Amino acid sequence: MNTLLKKENIKPLWAIDRAVRIAPRKGVLGELLYFVAFFAFCLKFTLDYSGLIPERPEMLNTMLVALSISCSMAKILMQRYTPLRFVMTMIICAAIGFSAVISTNFLFLLSFLLVVSMQDIELEKIVQAGFLFKVVSIAVHVIIYIFVFHTNPDVIEFNFRAGTGEPRHFFFMGHSNTFTAFLIWSCFDYIYLKYDKLNIFRLATMWVIAVTFFMFTRSNTAMIVFAVITVFVFADKMRKGYLDRLFTFFAKYLYIIFSLFFTLLIVTFTQLQERFLVLWYALDDFMTGRLWLAAHTFYTEGHTILGRPDMPPRVVFWRGRWFDTMTIMDNHYLGNFVSYGIINTVAVAAALIALCGKMETREKLIIIAFSLFAIMQNDVTNIVICFALLILGKHIYTQEHRPT
After folding, report:
1. pLDDT tens across 235-293, in order?
2. Which has the closest alpha carbon to 338: 253, 262, 255, 389?
3. Cβ distance 319 to 277 under 8 Å?
């Protein structure tokens, strides 16, 4: 008798119908949980950056964090796993969560939870949502800033560039670099979403917008990264696939190369000969003191694997120089090495090396932008601004379900 017709293999129609009805409901619930977590995350950190609402109840901040974490964890527990993958996911979540508690920096934890809860979630939907969120945030802040600038200019504050004292507008978004990061990564969102339709006109339009605001913010790093990526996009459009091996190499290894390079600069600082110290100081000037701050922290506090609490800002004298310490290490690689935990670097580097080989060209370019941006911005792991880590989430589950 045909095994398909055996009694034990025949399911009643009600059971088949119930399975068909439950699967879509579970998918819809998972997607709902994910986007609630995502928008709670976006709202929390956009409010943190924004100066439009200077006094916010601490309860609101706590509720948004709790909502994002709880919805992400619920989505993670709903997902399909092999036993080994489930155990590994829980161990990594626990390690990064422990690091977040020690360092009191929950940014990477919240981003990480949204990365590992991406099973059955379409990346393009998330990027579209993030793009709209950022564009609306930028528009609101710019419109209000222009209005206040013309009606009550005395309340306008500026950032001032170290050394030259050049005033920089930040449009009520905390810092000029923060505003520019929102703007440039909105452009990268657009590049990702419209990659197949990009042409000279669209690239030129983005350049006009970026340069216009650069005249006010003077954020050099963002413009350098934007220039590199748009040149890569243009080159790929001219010779489709010609540079793909180069893009793959950069996407895979640029992050770990920069991690090792900046770590080496700090660890060897006191052993450098005079001729190399000149170059070290020149690079530190270009990076507006980031190397010096990291070196001071390393030689006074050491490195950290799982993170350490932020030190209160203070004026210190070290190796013949007075300077202010800061609670934010504004270089992602050095920040992880001396403050937030090497485990964060290891997790990202391992994922990039394992997954980048199967990525599309547009995804590789976003990963390259992420690695470059991390040189001068620590909040590059904030998926409100930079969605690069979400690409890893997509490919973790793409590889899991790829047919053999």
Report:
1. 999 888 789 999 999 999 999 999 999 999 999 888 887 788 888 888 888 887 788 88
2. 262
3. no
